[in-house]
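TA notes. Do not distribute before section.
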Amino acid sequence: MKNRHFARACAPACFVLLTLSVLTILMTQKAAADPFTDLQARLPKQINGWTADPADRIFDPISIFSYINGGAEVYKAYNMKHCFSRRYSNPDEPAIILDIFDMGTSQDAYGVFTHDTDGEALAVGQDARFRPGWLSFWKHRFFVSIYMEEESPAAEKAVKELGRQVAALIPAKGTRPRLVLKLPAQGLDPENIRYLHHPILLNYHYYLADENILNISQQTDAALADYRRGQEKARLLLVEYPDSEIAARSLSNFLKHYLPDADKSGVALLENGKWAAARLNKKWLAVVLEADSRKFAENLLKKVLQNPS
């Protein structure tokens, strides 16, 4: 009998504890909800007279090759996790395609954005660019691409509005890679920075060799940037390696295969009249691929490597 009374007395308290436990679990699950899935669920079904087609499509790093002909390698090189694709239709206007790429990290979302930075800057998401028929931007861990199948004033307006709404549904902002923040600010062209960690991407923007002579990999970060000081121009490549041993081997490899005429300070005059130079500080390798003067090349190397961390 005592046990029965004890159970009755405990029932309300146990119910409260159970309820609190369930609420805690639900709140935890909501907090831990996948941002990619959550973003999908909140995307607009209509935009300025365009209506979403009934079926959305989801692609992974393998099936993306069936969707993007010739460009899927770029997304894979930046560690794409998923791609969400939605088509918006309007009976009197060209269709609009929304593609949202979950890159896993804000650094890779920024990186895939830097692969093509042409266009007009817009205040949408982070660093948005608009070219005829196409809007792209990055925010948090997402890269967003919106394009119209044919150009029209109404479709352009709808694309920009859709971009604003999608960006607003991504509450967090992304952070640029630490490596990019180490680039010297003086003379830097902020619209011509490429962040990457794959040799194919480096060769796309600046061809070095068929072989991976700089040992660029998923364990390395690299930034390719353009500089101008007065009338002089230069292109700088900064690479951070996992350790100083790989960095030293990469410098040796670069001098042997790409800059064999370099002097003891790692500087050489190229056949086109430009100057190239390479220098190492611990696990950081800086390479000036082309500069209009030796002084510009050496000053740029000194500046970028003066405070490695």
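Switch to the second chain here.
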Amino acid sequence: MMKIRNFICFFCFISLPVILIAEEGTTKGTTSNSTNNENQVYKSVDSDGNISFSDAATDDAEKIKVRDLPVINISPTPKIVTHTPASKAKKSIPYSQLVITSPKEDENIWNQTVITAQVKLQPGLNKSHTITIMLDGVALPGKGLSRPMENLNRGTHTLSAHIKDSKGGSVQEATPVQFHVHKTSILNQPANRP
């Protein structure tokens, strides 16, 4: 029971919002702030030895000197304003759409000697940008949003499209598309029977 009382007294002591200093006389060069009753605190000890603090004086209470709390002025954090150069603002024009429209994802293409790769772009291509369309990692020749692909081998191919700036840096990429080329073979034809 005594431990609980001591804990409660200790908790009350450390939770006071003021710094308490026992007044044992005046020190040279200090002035008393206790003239104002709002800052006056009294310490008393009961018959069990429990210490309590109050702003009301009692007969057995000891007057405690209360020091004013320091005032800390906190200035607001300065706002950091960054300026984007006009040249960078022009380079970073986002394209709302860059999509490979032909061939379609997982499309099967039969017996075609020329397949056209087509890309849709919105808004239009910036003058300082170029578009590169790649088949299986190799750039297709030509300019514009469509490129012919001739005599592709049988099998699965990957088509990708990239927009690059004047220095060759990547601006935006389309989601790659895989498509499948099939060709009929003479070996797969039914034999002519007499």
